[in-house]
Amino acid sequence: MRILVVGAGALGGLVGAQLTEAGEDVLLLEIDEKRADLLNREGLYITEEGKGERKISVRVITTMEGIDPVDLVFVSVKTYQTEVAVKGVLPVIGDDTRVLSMQNGIGNTDVMVGILGREKVLSGITYHSIQHTGPNKLRYRVGIKPIQIASCEGKSGPDVEKIGEVFRKAGLKTDVVRNIDHVIWQKLLHNAVVNPVSALTGQNCNQLLEDQDLQALMREVCMEIIAVMRARGVPIINKDDPYAPVIDSQKALGENRPSMWQDLDRGLKTEVDALNGAIVAEAERHGLKAPLNWMLVRLVHSAERRNQNKESGE
Question: Nearest to residue 132, comparing CAs of 266, 286, 269, 297?
Answer without folding.
Answer: 266
